[in-house]
Amino acid sequence: MGKLDVHNIKGEKVSEMELAAGIFELPVKKHILHQVVLAQLAKKRSGTASTKGRSQVRGGGKKPYRQKGTGRARAGTLSSPVMRGGGVVFGPSPRSFALKCPKKIRRQALKMALASKYEEKSLVVLDGFDLGKISTKRFLEVMKDLKANNALIITDAPNESLELSARNVPKIKVLRAEGLNVYDILKFKHLLLLEPTIKQIEERLLR
After folding, report:
1. Is there a single domain that holds both residue 90 and residue 163?
2. pLDDT (tens digit per residue) in 22-73
3. Strand, coil or helix: what is 107?
4. Are 141 and 177 in a shared domain?
5. Domain coverage including residue 51
6. Which residues contact 110 (CB under 8 A, 6 or more apart)?
7. DSSP secondary-structure letter at 10?
8. 8 Å CB contact between 140 and 131
9. What is the rounded CA–CA span in Å between residue 146 and residue 143?
10. Are 36 and 14 in the same domain?
11. Residues lower than pLDDT 70 in the chain
């Protein structure tokens, strides 16, 4: 098992804790991380673009003009794609962009994403994050002390003062432990975990 220092919000070391080797010391395989991130981003796509084909356009039952004698090309319906207001040829229709990704692969990728932060020494464990009140100025001071201006902060329970203080700060995101995901871990340079979240993560990934 690996060991990691636990700091307070002033950046001072207050204790040490052991990390599960089955998560934080796992070999990182980039192709697995890529597969899961791709699936996450694909699932976010709305896929709501829609057009009407010639069979869906209203009207078009009557022949627009006579077959011969007009000098124009013959036409049988106004819903034809060559007519103004007619159907669209091979247009988009609502669809799901979601990619299938096995549960085992998703779980493995989450472990590897955490392991990559531990390996890069970008993982910081805090004993707590109590700002006392909603204050973006105070939050920025804390992040300066922790030397983390691009960070994902994971909390174990709702923390209104932290969530509201950080919501308008660029390159900072606050998530609860149950929302931890591969894309967000890799997107931010630092990963800040509150001490109680370690146990929650280990219970989730080692069961």
Report:
1. no
2. 899 899 999 999 999 999 999 999 999 999 999 999 988 889 999 999 999 9
3. helix
4. yes
5. 47-96
6. 36, 180, 181, 182, 185, 205
7. T
8. no
9. 5
10. yes
11. 1
